[in-house]
Design a protein that fits this description.
The complex is a heterodimer. Chain A is built from five helices and five strands. Chain A is an alpha+beta fold. In chain A, helix 2 packs across helix 5 (140-149). Classes of the chains: A alpha+beta, B alpha+beta. Chains A and B meet through helix 2, helix 3, helix 4 and helix 5 of A and helix 1, helix 17 and strand 28 of B.
Chain lengths: 160, 786
Amino acid sequence: MKISMTVNGKAVSGEVEGRTLLSGFLREQLSLTGTHVGCDTAQCGACVVHVNGQAVKSCNMLAVEADGADVGTIEGQANADGSLNVIQQAFQDHHGLQCGFCTPGMVMSAAALLKDNPRPSEAEIRKYLEGNLCRCTGYHNIVKAIMAASGQDVGSIAAE
Amino acid sequence: MPKDSGIGASSKRREDVRFLTGAGNYTDDINVRGQAYVYFLRSDIAHGRINSVDTSTAEGMPGVVRVFTGKDFEGVGGMPCGWEVTDKHGAPMQEPPHPILAQGKVRHVGDPIVAVVADSLEQARDAAEAIDLDIEELPAVIDMKSAAQEGATLVHDDLKNNICYDWQLGEADDAKVNDVFANAAHVTTLDLVNNRLVANPMEPRVAVAEYSRGTDEYTLYTTSQNPHVIRLLMCAFVLGLPEHKVRVVAPDVGGGFGTKIFHYAEEAFCTFAAKACNRPVKWTASRSEAFMSDAQGRDHVSTIELALDADNNFIGLRTNTYANLGAYLSTFSSSVPTWLHGTLMAGNYKTPVIQVNVKAMFTNTVPVDAYRGAGRPEATFQLERVIDKAARELGVDPIALRRQNFVTQFPYDTPVALTYDTGDYNGTMDKLEAAADLAGFAARRAQSEAKGKLRGLGVNCYIEACGIAPSNIVGMLGARAGLYDAATVRVNATGSISVMVGAHSHGQGHETAFPQVVADMIGIDESMVEIVHGDTSKIPFGMGTYGSRSLAVCGSAMVKATEKVIDKAKKIAAHLLEASEADIELKDGQFSVAGTDKSVAWGDVTLTAYVPHNYPLEVEPGLEETAFYDPANFTFPAGAYACEVEVDPDTGQVTIEKFTAADDFGNIVNPMIVDGQVHGGIGQGIGQALLENCAYDENGQLLSASFMDYAMPRADDVPFYGVDHSSQTPCTHNPLGVKGCGEAGAIGSPPAVVNAVLDALNSGGRAVDHIDMPMSPSRVWTAMHG
């Protein structure tokens, strides 16, 4: 069946099977391979995208369910001039990523969090990231980066 | 004052930009024109005899290209083991075949039986459902001690029993060891389990292979930590392909932690099938598949005995360990419970008599191999737990007991085959005591108790042998590979540099840290140096990244190659400056004649190397050098860790309140990256201690086969960590004085967590001397109330 949606501000359409997942549509048909698939039980969060402004695990949504939606992926997060946005820059500044595989989902989740809660506490960030697994960082620098991205002073957190 | 570039600077990672913008290139992002997809039909039972496999219906299903079974691989080599262990009686280990697809029997849940290649993954999966398997289920051997018994069901019918090897290290004279224990003032004994773990890098394994009929060449894209190792094993031992006709590419790899070292059947299958089907073949593991096909980690059951004299000096140590190897020998599985474990049993202590005994078992479970730390966490856990128990039994301070027994003179020959070149264990412990504010613990405990919680402090040390390894030594110990590494420094005409390295970066930040070294040596901007890795067609034959070896081994090769480049560039500079080569100095990217103001810039020299008009006739044009580096010894990072927990006495719930690491990694190139490595290791160690457990039932069913059932540490399971790397005794035998930092956190943290929980319980009046990991609330509560 044919579906149409807006992805990163651009109108797209494609032919999908009923069982095609949104993550598969983005990766295979639109070649937006920044959205990663790290599990098959909607636990890891590497596939988080924004659908109509909400953080969604794209491996847990059928592509047809996103028909007509406004979808945002990691490829659309940078500033208009191509520079890293505030969250992306904070992740680089604070070493909030290592292998990079969970990173797109982390950045998308962090963006959704900060939209709803512009100055989250450490505990709120950790709670919010329950659905995003990272195996490399021990979460230290991810939490720190999100705090920094929200304008908080992270200087007192264990030194880099 | 922190440096802002070069060695010692926390340079921001350049690779982050592509990862943060979705522009990474992971193996599953690679699609080759015309590719087909393979789906592996895997065993859903742990042990069974294959009576028949009927694929006829599947072969006629829509989109099916070809269906493969074990019969297609008769006469093809199996998956090799890269390390032959000799048992204590001098016999080689038992080494059963490991076919690409099951032949005759299935031996673990997940053992691949049939491979369906089709136009789409969905079609392959649909066709697999139409395959008729007639498999007679056999009793499964799961528990290691049962597997060792006479008359136990055999995992491999051709072997005499399920024991791969019965190995010993250290004091071979039992009477001497018995004598030490008989004359000890105190003996502490502890039985413990090192729980089986799943590495779970966030990127599942993927392989994409293509074959060119025109050139008879293969390309395999794979999620590997060591592409040259994969190429060698696959070509020489499995498929019998000419190495120069095979290119293996490991592009961006989403974490490894050991489990992407090994050569896997799926890689060999895709390469084989690409030619057999005359189409590229792609395989992407689902996470469920990863749980039953990625080599797993740990899984030791041990008894450790520590003998002390009347002054609390350690006088003897004896261990008896059962190590689970699973159903087949994974690539380096045999080395983990032996040379990577037994050799570390001395720890940071000068115990004079040590005997290590290891029985390695075949069972009907997924193969077990190296996982972050690989053998060293198992050694550290036993030793640091038994010391803590001894301190409690003797009523002495656990830190004082450790300090009293520290090795303080270097080099130190251990009774278990290693020579520690350098270290300062008291100095590192001093750093820990300050960084963790141990003096303030009593006040923090009082605060916790006021809230109705029990608070505990756990401290431990660790040492690891990294920078693996001197090839001549590991060769004597049974390794079937060399363990050097290699780097080529290619200076371009305009002065920029490409460094081709054998190490592979899958999160470690080599693309940032390695240029810091080269740029620092020459005195140019880091941005002028680029690292090339992960492609056998581009890089020299290196052995890849594992065992915290990248900088210590490959980095040393890179330094040697850079030194050769500088030596040659000085010859060119001397010619241009009409001076003697001996008088040429290189500083800040300028070659100058000592004692004069004559100089020539790096870029002018490099341009001259490639446009050799005014050039010394005896020097070859060009500026490119390769070095292979084989280390003279292992490196020995060491540290001391402190964990503070709160235990809820009503529920047994443990929370990590504070975690502090003090490590001695020798010199450090990028402190930010080093801290990140330690954070990640601690996260995994806390996961092992509190959450993670790869569980099988008595029939060999894998109970923890998804992230729903296998408890990965999440952001709210862990605190911010304190890390201190100011204790630095540089490695004495590599040019950078570096030791390696990748595994420390995972090695050092589990005993700290367990020691802390036991301290908490004992502070609350519960005389509990051990709880097995993972310390779930039910286990803790049961220990408190049992």
